[in-house]
Amino acid sequence: MSAFGFRLEAQDGRARAGRLETAHGPVETPVFMPVGTAGTVKAMLPESVKATGASIILGNTYHLMLRPGAERVAALGGLHRFMNWPGPILTDSGGFQVMSLAGLRKLDEDGVTFASHIDGAKVRLTPEGSTEIQDLLDATITMAFDECTEYPASHEAAARSMRLSMRWAERCRTAFRRREGYGQFGIVQGGTFEDLRGESVEALTAIDFEGYAIGGLAVGEGQPEMFRVLDFTAPALPADRPRYLMGVGKPDDLVGGVERGVDMFDCVAPTRSGRNGQAFTRRGTVNIRNSRHRDDPRPLDEACGCPACRDYSRAYLHHLVKAKEILAAMLLTWHNLHYYQELMRGMRAAILAGAFADFAAAFRRELAQGDIAPL
Question: Which parts of the sequence bind Zn(2+) (predicted)?
Answer without folding.
Answer: 304, 306, 309, 335
